[in-house]
Write the structure tokens for this entry.
Amino acid sequence: MEDIKVNFEKNSATALKNANLQRALKNAIDQFRNVRGKAVGEFEEWEQLRASARRIKEWTIGQLDEYLEMLEANVIKAGGTVHWASDAKEACEIILDIAKKHNVKSVVKSKSMATEEIELNHSFEGAGIKVVETDLGEYIIQLANERPSHIIAPAIHKTREDISKLFVEKLNTPYYKEPEELTKIAREKLRSEFLNADMGVSGVNFAVAETGTIVVVENEGNARFTTTVPRIHVALMGIEKVIPRFEDLSIFLNVLIRSATGQKMSTYVSFITGPKRNSDLDGPEEFHLVIMDNGRSKILSHEETRESLYCIRCGACIYICPVYKKVGGHSYGWVYPGPIGAIITPQLLGIDKAHELPFASSLCGACKDVCPVKINIPRVLLELRSRVISDRRVGAGFLLRIAVRLWRFTMENKGIYNLASQLSYILQKPWIRHGRLTSLPFPFSRWTKKRDFPAVAKTSFRKQWNEIKDLEG
Amino acid sequence: MNSNSREEILKRIRRGLHRLAIVRRKDENISPSSSSYKESQQKLEKLHKEMDERRLLLLDMFMNEITKVSGKAIILKSEDEIKDYVIRLVEEHSAKSLAIWESDFLKQINLREFLENKGLKFAPPNSKEEMAEADIGITEADFGIADTGTLVLIANEKQPRSVSLIPPIHVAILQSDVILEKMEDVFAILKNSLDETGSIAKLTSCITFITGPSRTGDIELNITLGVHGPKELFVLICP
């Protein structure tokens, strides 16, 4: 994890040139925005629901230590085992130890961002243990040896033709193009994996402190297989996933599901409390819960950005973001894309590892408006920008500091401002194309390489305004 | 190493939150949104009264919603109608092996014996290999949620969870008097199965909400049914 460095500028430039990706993104996103809008619109008390979810998150994170201890006690009471992992390395070690102790040969996984975060699959493969992703999207991504590009729809960047070719190449199937046929192949392949696996690894959408219950939300049934069929179930959660009470779930399931997929209710929600009881006929014999910090307590200690931990990973901000819609998930360089990635990645990896991300936003605020727990993402982005700028490793250099001073001086002095704008009106002339500046010389080229700049007008806004006022008299 | 990390993580959290002394709260104050145990008991009584008064309305809502998510709901008026319907499904799908719950109502109508007499085999739920060969799984929902068309299945020794998961067809019996209006009503009732100290004595290893057949949208957001779980869901509603 230490060697990850996000290069947003390079990644996004590549993504913008990929016509196939642009098409896949546009189709999926337009469709999703429509569906989500309906699911939220039909719920009369949506705003109250968001406010309640927000309040419970604030409250819980505010005394997180206590709720984690309560959760631990209740998981143990139900017959489960609790492990604590300070970082990604320790989380992988804990899970590998469980696997080795039980002589596990093969593992099935249901979708979990936390396991992506710690690159658990690499650890398993390194130890010679077979690991199979079972969510259809994740399965496709695993076959293609890629990273998910969206937290809810991991293969959103792939068209059906891409997937057909992938299946022919990796699974030696005939060329099927229809989603129904492709899904059927995956069903058959994965069925045998489920029945042969010794261990299932799942994520956790919510963990209920008062009962020691973990909640897993899904549509396919792969998480039910993962948590039911193999003899050992390991669930990995970040420390922020805990909620106090069982009945709080009606609030959180409502906001999560409607925001994530635009459904009223997902096909399956599993509420798992410990391993199978002695008299039960099926279910895993052992249940292990791994509670992981991995940088989250550091986020907690900054009051200005603490709300980043309220995120329930619904992905609504990702779909709504105009920047994501153009650059896609892989541009964000790590497991969390879109606006939520832009605030979480720099905080989890370190500001120097992902210093471009807080700037990968137009601050339009659409993410804040859709967020079901009302995280003020633009405000967090601004706070992180200021941390980047004042960082000695990646912050503003000498020239930029001078330039900003100069800019400030100009803006504060009316005479100099007027002079500067008239000067630029004259100086810009050789570069005007159809009323726009499309390629300026260095250092201004750093702007025009990516986007045009409107040509400076002959008469300033202030002057025009006064003239109009005089006319209206 | 492990116990060390536990202390380290909790210490970092306390330091980050500037929480020096830990003040234990009474259980009633566990979270801002929640009601007390007593309140939830009162809510429960009110709920049962409403359910009785609005049974037809809730039934209608349930049927409407489950149809929207590609489930099939059928109202059957008697034991015999249930048996006839199941036999018809068995024939239509040329099913040879089934899996079934031993819940009270299913025992009462002797559905298993009836089907065994017709020459059908039953897979034992503790054998995943035999379960994988089963064509139809038969369960009985503990609750229904009208607002979303959801079945609530509570796993226990008589109600194994793989019966609603592994066979490609899931048939669930739903008695109309356990249909609740909203998801929150289920939590209010399940809460009743916790005792006053919030102990989990009665919460079983797994509760599952099921809303329609298994589905995915992972290929171009194209909705496809039956990716891992059942491809078809039949809800047989008894008045």
In short: Chain A has 22 helices and 13 strands.
